[in-house]
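Methods — Computational structure assignment.
A single polypeptide chain was analysed. Its primary sequence is given first, followed by the predicted tertiary structure written as structure tokens.
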Amino acid sequence: MNTTFFGDMLQSIAERGRSLLDRTGVRRPDRETLPSDLIDLCEELLSGRGEAAGVALAREILTRYGELKTGPRIAFFEALAERFGADPARVDTAIEAWRRNPSDTTAAELHVAAEPRRQELFRRLNLAPGGTAALVRMREQLLDAMDHREDLAPVDADFVHLFSSWFNRGFLVLRRIDWSTPANILEKIIRHEAVHKIRSWEDLRRRIDPPDRRCYAFFHPALVDEPLIFVEVALARDIADAIAPILAETREAIAPERSTTAVFYSISNCQRGLAGVSFGHFLIKQVVEEISRDVPKLSTFVTLSPVPAFAGWLRRERSRESSPALTNEDRLALATLDAEGWWIDAKAREALREPLSRAAAWYFLHARNDRGLPVDPVARFHLGNGARLEQINVFGDLSENGLRQSYGVMVNYLYDLDYIERNHEAFAQSRTIAASSAVKKLVRGAPAELVPLAG
């Protein structure tokens, strides 16, 4: 109700401001003009008009931006990069003032001078009705353009900087998603599930309606009924080692009070425009607190996670003349992965169990990218949040997607509340990976002097 009231108030201000713009003679170009006219409007917005006129002008800019095709849109991003950076003359003056008289005042002026004009432009655009949602969509389109345009990275950096403040944990609201949740939100949960596709409304109901299933999402007041990120949870008696039983159409539900383990089996972002703005770790920690209050007997909190980069990494290692990750015996055994339908043959699977386990353990403990971080993006997320690599499940996901990205391998990350902070600090400071003794044993005997592999 409060959000609706605030939105209506902004609409009212924008309407009054629109008439004010008409009276003051601000040029409102027709819909077919070039993006340069849109840039002129952005300059007008930064010129410091009154609040009502500014809100109306911000809405006009966002409306016109929304009508741009791909080419003009990229031209708009180019103009943001080239014309709306920091003012060099102002920065030089601020630097000189600081050198003459280092003080809080001159430091503050230098800070303001160094800020790109884009950031203030985005702040003023955000005042328009629906401005936050429009800017999130704008950034999503910018990310598409950046696939081929690295020169637009400064614009993206400004978006991330501002979004990190606008979407900080203090503004986020955790809501449980269940069968009584409005249909428009449930439709978005279906559409944005990125780990294990939801195939129907009945499939969704199996994930959120039974007493041993939970789903939670973060929302932001400026994005009404738009989930930012959501997590699906299965209550269980033990650590789950495969996804099929969790998603099975027919299974026996467990009474929550008989559960000891909460399994986080899917975490999905709903807003691509917020990529790089991390609130997943807040989600996990708050959901742990929420479920613990609801089911006090829970003592174990784990994920059942995909390993999206493993198959590609293993193919590259197998193609090398020699690889410290693979023994000759394991290399021969892993040749079975090239056979059509190997996962159907129980004997073939069993022969692959140990070599796949060893290769996966090496992948997690040693394979690094050029920044010294684990190659696997899901591992970076959970290990960075203080989880421990607990268990490797070599045939945890034999779906088409699971076979394609990881040859069926899944893993459990354990969130031990007593060690989360310690693990996080060790990972952040020295890239130390917290792993169970069972995982470490899989690579024992490897030469200590081996350099971690690049991804």
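Note: The domain at 170-295 is CATH 3.40.630.180 (Aminopeptidase).
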